């Protein structure tokens, strides 16, 4: 008799598991509360990283049977690294350091590519459908709470394809902002690792900064955003259910690059159900060391301001000179060396809080940190104008996919 598998959530982790299990002949049903896969993100650009393993992630995906041609992906091997004192350097590498994909409901988006692969394999996806967690075998429902948030604006631009990554504690408290431009569409996003009132003022100021430094000729389309939930559960299989992707706490505490972990964990859960591996063991061996290293880095990042961010950027530049590869630094950052391992007990105690979730799981969770006095500053005249511009665009129908009160 065909075994039935029920999956909660039709995001990347849930659809990855669904594709593999359906191909193996399982009767797979995926339940998604939203109207479509990717609706959570609605046109956001995100980068799939290529630095936490020596294997190119697209080769890994092909080995698992996924076709990366199913969605649009733009590789980058160089970025503008913007230091907190506005110096711009350009780390580069030979191969793709990351690939930018679009999240959303348009057919070229990664979510739609994974949806097509799951459906072609035979999975049934039930959109706008609720299902009790207890009735599911795989929980792939994404983040529940907020440890950090990101706000971005999508716009038309004449600027060629480009990625900038800015370490700046004023524009992005405790974190970073970025500019991504793909084929005439731009995204400026700021990430807040400290909770703020009126978060949109950080986005307005960030946009003003990028406008001053790049020829953008920006014509706003919409604003997007979302939250990240950073927690490490005690177990990845709980009461017989497999927790994958962000629902399983498989997220990068340092920068929030969770897509690779989401797809990988979906694949591993499917392989475990097919009795090809032990999910708990694989996750602990392959992903938990990376998540822990990222949590330790986050702990260190939380302790520094722009002076510390400048040291990070300077170290990155020196590291590239020494090793002849701009990606070497990012690979090193995720290596769980002796220093980081020694710091782990301190990080657990000082940064993470024990919490029991509604489903009974115990997690060590990073709370959304409180704002600091330095987070309050007078906005520039241009940032105020940008805020006013956006309000008038909104009145004319401009959409925001994420409200501040969702954080
Ligand atoms: C603004 C922003 C920018 C980001 N940028 C990057 C980046 O550049 N690179 C990167 O690698 N990662 C990035 N991430 C993180 C990445 O998006 C996530 O880690 C990844 O999507 C997690 O995949 P998932 O399958 O676990 O969850 P999701 O992709 O969120 O999928 C979960 C699905 O479950 C559905 N769902 C939720 N609750 C229920 C329920 N009760 N019943 C049914 N369905 C439910 C949701 O609607 C959603 O479709 C970013 C995140 C945000 C918010």
Ligand inventory reads: flavin-adenine dinucleotide
Q: How many strand units?
A: 19
What is the percent of helical residues? Answer: 25-40%
Mean of pLDDT:
95
**Whole-angstrom Rg:** 21 Å
What characterizes the major β-sheet?
7 strands, mixed
Tally of separate helices: 10
Q: In one word, what is the shape?
A: globular
Uncertain segments are: none
Strand content: 15-25%
Order of helices and strands: EHEEHEEEEHEEEEEEHEEEEHHHHHEEH
How would you classify the helix and strand content by structural class? Answer: alpha/beta
- Amino- and carboxy-terminal Cα gap: 45 Å
How are the strands of the biggest sheet laid out side by side? 6-5-11-12-13-10-14
Task: Name the features.
407 residues; alpha/beta; 10 helices; 34% helix; binds flavin-adenine dinucleotide
Task: Tell me what you see in this structure.
By secondary structure, this protein is of the alpha/beta class. It contains 10 helices and 19 strands. The strands form 4 sheets. A 7-stranded mixed β-sheet has the order 6-5-11-12-13-10-14. It has a 6-stranded mixed β-sheet with strand order 8-2-1-9-17-16, covered by helices on one side. α1 (12-23) packs parallel to α3 and α5 (259-273) runs antiparallel to α6 (279-302). The protein is globular. The termini are far apart. The relative contact order is 0.16. The model has no long low-confidence stretch (mean pLDDT 95). The protein binds flavin-adenine dinucleotide. The site of flavin-adenine dinucleotide (FAD) has 35 residues, from α1, β2, β3, β14 and α5.
């Amino acid at each position: 008799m065909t075994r039935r598998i029920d999956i909660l959530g039709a995001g990347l982790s849930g659809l990855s598991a669904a594709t593999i299990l359906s191909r193996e002949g399982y009767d797979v049903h995926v339940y998604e509360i939203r109207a479509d896969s990717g609706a959570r993100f609605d046109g956001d650009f995100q980068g799939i990283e290529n630095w936490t393993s020596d294997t190119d992630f697209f080769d890994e995906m092909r080995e698992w049977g996924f076709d990366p041609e199913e969605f649009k992906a733009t590789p980058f091997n160089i970025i503008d690294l913007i230091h907190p004192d506005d110096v711009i350097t350009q780390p580069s590498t030979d191969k793709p350091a990351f690939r930018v994909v679009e999240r959303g409901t348009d057919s070229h988006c990664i979510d739609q590519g994974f949806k097509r692969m799951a459906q072609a394999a035979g999975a049934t996806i039930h959109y706008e459908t609720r299902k009790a967690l207890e009735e599911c075998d795989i929980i792939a429902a994404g983040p529940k709470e907020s440890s950090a948030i990101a706000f971005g604006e999508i716009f038309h631009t004449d600027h060629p394809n480009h990625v900038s990554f800015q370490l700046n504690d004023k524009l992005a408290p405790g974190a970073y902002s970025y500019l991504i431009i793909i084929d005439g569409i731009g995204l400026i996003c700021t990430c807040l690792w400290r909770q703020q009132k009126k978060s949109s003022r950080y986005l307005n100021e960030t946009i003003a900064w990028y406008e001053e430094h790049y020829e953008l000729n920006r014509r706003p389309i919409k604003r997007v955003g979302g939250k990240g939930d950073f927690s490490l559960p005690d177990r990845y299989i709980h009461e017989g259910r497999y927790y994958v992707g962000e629902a399983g706490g498989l997220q990068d505490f340092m920068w929030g690059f969770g897509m690779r972990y989401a797809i990988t964990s979906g694949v591993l859960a499917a392989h475990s159900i097919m009795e090809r591996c032990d999910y708990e063991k694989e996750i602990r061996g392959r992903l938990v060391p990376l998540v822990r290293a990222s949590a330790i880095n986050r702990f260190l990042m939380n302790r520094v301001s722009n002076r510390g961010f400048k040291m990070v950027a300077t170290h990155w530049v020196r590291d590239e000179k020494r090793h002849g590869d701009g990606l070497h630094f990012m690979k090193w950052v995720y290596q769980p060396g002796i220093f980081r391992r020694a710091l782990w007990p301190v990080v657990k105690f000082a940064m993470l809080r024990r919490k029991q979730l509604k489903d009974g799981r115990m997690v060590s969770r990073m709370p959304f940190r409180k704002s600091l006095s330095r987070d309050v500053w007078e906005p520039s005249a241009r940032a105020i104008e940008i805020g006013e511009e956006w309000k008038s665009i909104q009145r004319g129908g401009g959409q925001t996919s994420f409200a501040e009160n969702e954080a």
